Amino acid sequence: MKLVNVNGVIKQQIIDIRCGGVKILLKKIKRVLTLILKLPVFFIALPLVIIIRLIAPWILFRFGCLSSDRIGHFAANNELYLCKLDAGINKPTQPYIDLFYAIRPVSNRQLLRMWRRVLHIWPEWILYPVIRVNSLIPKGEAHNVGNNTQNDRDVFNLLDKSAPHLKFSAEEELRGEVELAKMGIPIKNPFICLIVRDSAYLESHQPKDWSYHDYRDCDINNFILAAEKLAGKGYFVIRMGKKVNSMMSVDNPMIIDYAANGMQSDFMDVYLGAKCAFCVSTSTGFDAIPLIFRRPIVFVDMVPIGYLFTFCSKNIAILRHHYSNQLNRELTLSEIFDKGLGFALRTNDYESKGVKLIENSPEEICDVVIEMAENIENKWQSTSDIEDLQYKVYEIYHKNSCFPLIAAIVHGDIRIKFGSKYLRENKELMR
Question: Of 222, 341, 359, 398, which has the fewest CB atoms closer than 10 Å, so is most exposed?
C-alpha cells in the first residue's frame, strides 16, 4: 500500500501557487518597463506619421507586420504578397514603399535573412509605434498594407503563374551542397522531404494546451512503407521537423531522420524544402517552404478537408477518412461539408458530432507517393474514369469554396489532383 504525504503535497501546492503569482507579477513588471522604454519612440512616431501623411500624395508609405512566428505563414503569406503586387492586386497606383516588422519569436532565421533581400523589414521597436500612432489618427487605412500579407490562400492561382521570389546566394548554394554531403546524399541525387505533424513543436515553441489540435497529428510509422519504396527507386527520404515526439523506426541509409539526428538547422530547413524533388506532407507549416519554391507536394491525411491547398496543378492529395459512429459508415465528401466539418478546427468539433477521424493507411500513402514519383518521372498516365472522379470532387470543392462563418473565399480554381487509386477505391464517397 502506497502512503501519501498529505502535508508535503499541500506545502508543494502552496509553493506552486506562490511561484505562479511571482511569475505573473514579473510579467506585469516587464510589460510596464517595456512600455516606459517605448514611450520616447511613441513621441518620435507622432511627427513621423504627420510627415508621412503630408507626403502621401507623392509617395505612399504603407506598414504591416509579418507572421514570422509560424513558418507556414512566414513563407506563404509573404510570397503571395509579392505575387499579388506583380499581378497588380491591391497595389497602389502611385509610388509607394511598404515597410514591415517581424513578429517574435521568429520561426526561421534563414527565412528572415532571405526575406530581407526582397522586403523592407525594420525593427519592431521602430515600426510598431508608427503603426499604432497611425491607427489612432483618422483616415490612416491607406497606410496599411492590408490583407496582402495576412493570408496564405492562393485564390488567384498565382503560384502556378509565377517564379519564386527568394533565391540562395552563391555561398548558400555551396553551404547547402556541403551539408547534403554530410548527410551522405550525393550531388544531383534526388531527395524527398517528409513532414508528418505531431504536437512536439508547438508545445515547445509556444507552450500552452494545444490538445484541441490533436486531430491533425499522425503516426510517423504509417509513412515507412512509402519511404522504403522511394528509397528503392533511388530517392533519399529526409524526415523533416524542428522537434518531434518519436523517431522513425527504420534501418535504411537512404531514409534520414533529420528531425531527430541532430543535423536540423534553420538554414537546411529552407534549403531542403527548396531543393527537394517533391515533399510529402500532412499539411503543416514546413510544407510552405517547398510551396513557395514551386516544388510539388503530396498532401496525405488532409484534415480539415476544406483547407486543402487546391491551387497548384502539380500537387496531389488524399483526405483523411471521416467515420460516422451514428451511420456506421464513412461520410461522403458532401456530407463532411454539410455537417460543418469541412472547416472544423478543433478535436471536439469532430467528437461532438460523433465522427471518428481515421488516418490514411500505409498502403494508401505509398500509392499516392509513388504516383507523384512516377508523375515527375513522366511515367504516369491517367485514365478517363479517374478524370471523371476528379471532376466530381472539383464540383464539391467549388460548391463549398467559402469559409461559412465569414464567407471568405478559400479556393480559386481547383487544380490539385487527387490520388488515382484513392479515388478509385473510395469512389462511393466522392459525391
Answer: 398
Beta bridge partner(s), residue 192? 237, 278
Q: How big, in percent rounded to 5, are the helix, strand and coil portions of the chain?
A: 45, 15, 40
- pLDDT tens-digit map of 153-177: 999 999 999 999 999 999 999 999 9
pLDDT at 190 over 80: yes
Answer for the pair 47, 82: CB distance below 8 angstroms, yes or no. no
Q: What's the burial of 330, exposed, middle or buried (CB within 10 Å: 0-12/13-18/19+)?
A: middle
Give, for 114, the enclosing helix (H) or strand (E): helix 109-115
Residue 248 has pLDDT above 60, yes or no: yes
Q: How far is CA 352 from CA 330, 339, 341, 349, 357, in A?
A: 16, 11, 11, 5, 12
Domain ranges of the chain: 33-149, 170-429
Model confidence at 298: pLDDT above 70: yes
Fill in the amino acid letter for 328. N
Which CATH topology does 170-429 take? Rossmann fold (3.40.50)
pTM of the prediction?
Answer: 0.88
Residue 197 or residue 173, greater confidence: 173
Q: How many CA atoms lie within 13 A of 285 on its CB side?
A: 20
Q: Which residues are registered as beta bridge partners of 151?
A: none
CA 409, chain centre distance (Å): 18
List, for residues 370-386, the tens digit of each pLDDT value: 999 999 999 999 999 99
**Centroid of chain to Cα 205:** 15
Dist. CA 225–CA 376, nearest whole Å: 20
